[in-house]
Amino acid sequence: xxxxxxxxxxxxxxxxxxxxxxxxxxxxxxxxxxxxxxxxxxxxxxxxxxxxxxxxxxxxxxxxxxxxxxxxxxxxxxxxxxxxxxxxxxxxxxxxxxxxxxxxxxxxxxxxxxxxxxxxxxxxxxxxxxxxxxxxxxxxxxxxxxxxxxxxxxxxxxxxxxxxxxxxxxxxxxxxxxxxxxxxxxxxxxx
Length: 191
What we know:
CATH superfamily of the largest domain: Pleckstrin-homology domain (PH domain)/Phosphotyrosine-binding domain (PTB)
Structural class: alpha+beta
Helix content: 40-55%
Oligomer: single chain
Radius of gyration: 25 Å
CATH architecture of the largest domain: Roll
Number of helices: 4
Order of helices and strands: EHHHEEEEEEH
CATH class of the largest domain: Mainly Beta
Distance between the termini: 30 Å
Strand order of the largest sheet: 1-2-3-4
Strand content: 15-25%
């Protein structure tokens, strides 16, 4: 099998790659919920403490309670908005120059290689953990934090993408069996 693909990686692809890393880590998955509950708890605690301390003198705790309620309802949307703006400010064109742009992917019987302007990733098929697809991208996972991103727009059709995925899955499976057997591809391990 010899396959060559050329495609363009954008800042959105790179952000999706980073978000995928975060989503796969236990800390990354749980941080959003932790932050949400910590902020909401502090807002409600502020309202309760205001009521305990000065509830009989004025009704300022009502404003604090309304703020806590508003924060409870809007914080998930505000967080997504903040995260989008944050990633856009971090991943400016100057910051990711060389990481985005034109890429070439070469697949052979033994290796997979992605090359760009400033880097080349080359790995044996036995080092590829799996291939994953979503609606916009295909991911060749080399390690938990090393992935090759291929925009699905690279493929002429969904059938071509599925064919590519099947070819990669066959290569991954063939080379993982070889590693388990301790031999070469297509050769039985000696006993």
